[in-house]
Amino acid sequence: MAKKNVAVYDCSDTYIKRFLKYVNGQKPEGFSVIGFSEMDALKQYLENNRVDILLFSLEEQFIKDPDAEEVCAGLSGHPSVREFVYFGERRNSKSNVKHINKYQAAGKILLALTEILLPGREEAFPVEESGRKAELIS
């Protein structure tokens, strides 16, 4: 089975680093995770790479970037992104976009990713060396 790629964007460098540290410790089978805290780095990465899921946090981004909604809409339809998942606390009930609450335990986030990427998997995190660690691109 081909390994799935997950990209995570959050403008908090600290949050991304801590989340990736947890992911590296769990060694999830079936997918790898790459993190971004800078929008330009994410856009550049997507020019040459496909991702199966883009977890995208907007909450702090709205404060920094008044055009964040447009950026979000553009990334959700990006040809390199198979599935766009909103990553935050609030969810627009009118939206059809999937949602994962980023303020829950990291293990629950990985379980939610597993359910989306690998439906029907009973064992979410078997211990197996994948050879590729999650990384931060900022």
List its traits.
6 strands; 37% helix; alpha/beta; 6-stranded parallel beta sheet
As laid out across the biggest beta sheet, the strand order is 5-4-3-1-2-6
**Helix coverage percent:** 25-40%
The span between the termini is 30 Å
Structural class label: alpha/beta
Unreliable segments of 5+ consecutive residues: 124-131
Envelope shape: globular
Report on this structure.
The chain is α/β, with parallel strands linked by helices and 138 residues long. It has helices spanning 13-26, 39-48, 59-64, 68-76, 106-117; strands spanning 4-9, 31-36, 51-56, 81-87, 98-100, 135-137. It is globular, with a radius of gyration of 14 Å.
Write a brief structural summary.
By secondary structure, the protein is of the alpha/beta class. It has 5 helices and 6 strands.
Question: Would you spell out the secondary-structure blueprint of this structure?
Answer:
Blueprint: E1 4-9, H1 13-26, E2 31-36, H2 39-48, E3 51-56, H3 59-64, H4 68-76, E4 81-87, E5 98-100, H5 106-117, E6 135-137
Parallel strand pairs: 1-2, 1-3, 2-6, 3-4, 4-5
